Amino acid sequence: MLVHCSIVLFYVMFAFSFALVQLNVKRREFATIKGGRILHNSTTTILTQIVQSSVVCSSLCSIQGTCCYASYDRKTKQCILDESCCPQSEPSPDALILKKLEDSLSCQKEWFNYESKCYYFGGVITTWNDAKLTCESYGSMMVEVKSNCENDFLKTKAATYKASYWLGGTDIKIEGIWIWSSSQTEVTFSDWNVGNPNNANDNEHCLGMNYGAELKWNDYPCSGKLRTICEKVTVVIDETFEGGCFIHIKRAHNELINTMHVTIKYRNFTKFNKEKFIEDLKAKNFNEILYFDNPDHALDAWYSKLLNVLNKHAPIITKRVKKKSQPKWLNQVINQLRAKRDFYHKKRDFENYKLFRNKLTAQINKCKTDYFSKAVQSNSKTSEIWKHLKDLNAESKCPITSVTFQGSDVNEPKKVCEHFNEHFGL
């Protein structure tokens, strides 16, 4: 009996220890803020639920991909999950706010991580347009401030450099309508300095943070010279498996990336004059870079001066290249099979070539069948069904020229259309 009790006690202690380990694991995934709770927001709140502990609440946040913050009230046992990384909150002595800690991005040297982006605070004063080109040369864009939290982060970091900085906003197209130049979206969050924007002398169309006004926002002449802040965003590729076919979705900031068109950028040397280029290059005062203590900032200054001249003589042209959208049934499996088929064809290994050619054909037929069957069956709108049938007919090498109706083959085009209309019009 004593042995039996000892065994039971051992398992109880083991289970308790395991629970503590699990609790610690969960705790390490979240930063805990005591004495506060998140306010419910109809736009950003994901879930409001009664649960038994903060561990359960944090677990719910863990499995919700879009959850950024959670709060748990120990008195009411209410758990709130919120997708905003800057949620509104209020003091509450019985509550906890739990911030999900995501893996930090591997930002380059001199770049700083905040949330899901990397930021670069340039040390060179330059015009707004040159600042934009500099950011693009780094594979990034001028910073676009979307929230108070992000703005506070930028102000805190910029204050350490004691300088004013360009932001990516402009109203150059329509006076008073401020947009972010890279994403072409409207500026919804703002932190304007008193009396701004004022478009002084009808010549202030570019946005910047004014160090002399506690880094509040000012409108500046675009030809003015400030430092710049660049940002890089992450692109996450989600893969879901549906009906044997992989569907790839690219997301950036939870917004779908438009893949209907691509743009290419290139330098236009049509009017390039070598002598004038060298002449303008000699006119630049490159000795200024000697005053920088930081070699990276010195390099930035040199590169900015070079870009300034190069952009004048060989401007960067952005051209949109149209491409037909890929069929919706196309997936990664098909691409892999196609690559293997082409590989063996190139190697003149015709046995494997035929094998993967047949596999490719079978996979294409399967994905087409799955996609169009589901599309037709899941739609109740006649217009949508006809659209899918049109797509199917366009993909087919053999257009629909006959149908079987009530056991008989119908080949006359007019009759085929009538039977289709009769069938789908029911």
TrEMBL record:
Keywords: Disulfide bond, Membrane, Transmembrane, Transmembrane helix. It comes from the Eukaryota. The chain crosses the membrane at residues 6-25. Residues 114-231 form the C-type lectin domain. SUPFAM superfamilies: C-type lectin-like. InterPro entries: C-type_lectin-like, C-type_lectin-like/link_sf, C-type_lectin/snaclec_domain, C-type_lectin_CS, CTDL_fold. It holds the Pfam family Lectin_C. Gene3D superfamilies: Mannose-Binding Protein A, subunit A (3.10.100.10). This is C-type lectin domain-containing protein. It comes from Mytilus coruscus (Sea mussel).
